[in-house]
């Protein structure tokens, strides 16, 4: 059966050029939504151990969304650029007439002990993962309220936003921060029929999830490996982004109408092990 639960809706996705962001765009489009997608498509911090997304990556997202028969508006915009996000949201409202779904997905992950990372590594992670989300909120919430259609905002946090792990305390701090922001925003937006939830993946098959620099950290600090346990379900490989998108599409649609201010795990039970 073809999923048409989001027909007539418009979804805004950050970090959309590849990985989870691309998967969320495609799956939302398959469910009937038109897409507004942004990505920096450039190096965003010198501290990542994986390559940045490119313009070609974002073009592939466009091709895949259009292959689902939906329209897509894109911009090469860093989530740290509040004015840029506001401009493309305004363009989206002009082109599509509405905005119903927001998937705040853009983030970075890199490694280092808290007292050994540089001030710039700390600041880049905070600015992208948490202030970037706040910028997204600033850009999308006013037009969503003005439209009066309700909606769903989905913040992609991490299992490390609930159960902190060593070696990336700066990342964990931002992802815990996403939970606080999400919960507060859900209360503030409830009167407008806008739901706000966070999703918490673990070990996802993306460029970030395949960053081999984690092995250097575990080599230098082997005791840390005990904090990276498998889940309760069989864990033979990293989680496919499409599996996380299943949850995103559900949170975007009417089947989750009672769910707000919730932290939805997507981690095979890792948080309970």
UniProtKB/TrEMBL annotation:
Keywords: NAD, Oxidoreductase. It holds the Pfam family adh_short. Coiled coil: none annotated. It comes from the Bacteria. InterPro entries: NAD(P)-bd_dom_sf, Sc_DH/Rdtase_CS, SDR_fam, SDR_subfam_1. CDD domains: SDR_c. SUPFAM superfamilies: NAD(P)-binding Rossmann-fold domains. The keyword NAD applies. Belongs to the short-chain dehydrogenases/reductases (SDR) family. PANTHER family: DEHYDROGENASES, SHORT CHAIN, ESTRADIOL 17-BETA-DEHYDROGENASE 8-RELATED. This is Mycofactocin-coupled SDR family oxidoreductase. It comes from [Mycobacterium] crassicus. The lineage of its organism: Bacteria, Bacillati, Actinomycetota, Actinomycetes, Mycobacteriales.
């Amino acid at each position: 059966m073809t999923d048409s639960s989001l027909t007539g809706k418009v979804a805004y996705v950050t970090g959309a050029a590849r990985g989870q962001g691309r998967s969320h765009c495609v799956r939302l489009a398959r469910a009937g939504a038109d897409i507004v997608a942004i990505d920096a498509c450039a190096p965003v911090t010198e501290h990542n151990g994986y390559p940045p997304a490119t313009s070609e990556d974002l073009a592939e997202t466009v091709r895949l969304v259009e292959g689902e028969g939906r329209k897509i508006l894109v911009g090469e915009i860093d989530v740290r650029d509040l004015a840029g996000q506001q401009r493309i949201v305004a363009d989206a409202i002009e082109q599509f007439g509405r905005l119903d779904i927001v998937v705040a997905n853009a983030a970075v992950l890199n490694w280092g002990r808290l007292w050994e990372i540089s001030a710039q590594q700390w600041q880049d992670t905070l600015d992208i993962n948490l202030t970037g989300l706040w910028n997204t909120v600033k850009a999308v919430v006013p037009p969503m309220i003005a439209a009066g259609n309700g909606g769903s905002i989905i913040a992609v946090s991490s299992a490390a936003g609930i159960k902190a792990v060593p070696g990336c305390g700066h990342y964990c701090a931002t992802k815990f921060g996403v939970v606080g922001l999400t919960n507060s925003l859900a209360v503030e937006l409830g009167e407008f029929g806008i739901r706000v939830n966070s999703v918490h993946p673990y070990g996802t098959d993306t460029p970030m999830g395949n960053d081999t620099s984690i092995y250097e950290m575990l080599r230098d600090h082997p005791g840390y490996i005990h904090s990276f346990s498998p889940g309760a379900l069989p864990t033979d490989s990293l989680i496919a982004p499409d599996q996380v998108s299943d949850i995103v599409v559900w949170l975007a649609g009417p089947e989750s109408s009672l769910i707000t201010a919730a932290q939805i795990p997507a981690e095979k039970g890792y948080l309970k092990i």
